[in-house]
Amino acid sequence: MKVFIVHAHAEPQSFNGALTRHAKTVLEAAGHEVKISDLYAMNFDPLSDRRNFTSIKNPDYYRQQTEEAYANEVNGFAPDIVAEMEKLEWCDVLIFQFPLWWFSLPAILKGWVDRVFAFGRVYGGGKWYDNGVFQGKKAMLSLTTGGGDSSIKGIYSETGLNGSIHNILFPINHGIFRFVGFDVLPPFIAWGASRASDEKRQAYLEEYQQRLLTIPETQAIAYPSLKDYDENFELKQSASVKQN
Ligand SMILES: Cc1cc2nc3c(=O)[nH]c(=O)nc-3n(C[C@H](O)[C@H](O)[C@H](O)COP(=O)(O)OP(=O)(O)OC[C@H]3O[C@@H](n4cnc5c(N)ncnc54)[C@H](O)[C@@H]3O)c2cc1C
Fold it and tell me: How many domains are there within the chain?
């Protein structure tokens, strides 16, 4: 497998850092190829505007999707974006490694998506969901949380104070990964990484190792397919599939 890890943590000694280093070691030892974008180490610029382009379609009014479509025609993406797009297009498996921040991605990683997932190249023109550009490839979230105990129980459960972790991750898993065609693997979650014992953190590293080495046989989340929706993009009555 060709695995691309987009890593979003400012501290190399963090548990997120340990998870990414461990992933690289374990995957390479098993004969897989790994590329990592360590966003803070790269000083990746997450702001999305005309800096994304060397080309200009409309100098008077900035519409990002218009500029993206044009840049795709004339090779007008800025070099930092092209470098990330090439890694994205190279991989069979995309992994986001991050601490959960405000029930979401850290801004540097959200900015990476905003800039790299460009209209005309990564989505658009009928290329979405099952028909997406990255159909046949896999994507997975690997995250740490501050709250929650050793499993999907308690505060991040359906009836927990924070609500279901699956609902929290739906905008990323479905709205980003699935939207552009990836098969989305269940997330790997190291719960309460800062408060966990060293033994627990060791166990998380081993659990993650297992998750990585069994990616080829791991079932993707069973999202409905496009054919399960009617002409108004409403789930058909006949479709009995879960949405997250
Ligand atoms: C802006 C912000 C928003 C947040 N929002 C949320 C939220 O919405 N929901 C939520 O649940 N949490 C939230 N948090 C908490 C955050 O998710 C956690 O602090 C984070 O996930 C912990 O992961 P870490 O890698 O930063 O841990 P660290 O604190 O860096 O690491 C944990 C421990 O692991 C140790 N460690 C490092 N390497 C190893 C190794 N190889 N083996 C064993 N131990 C090791 C480290 O030394 C450290 O003691 C938020 C935090 C911030 C700053």
Answer: 1
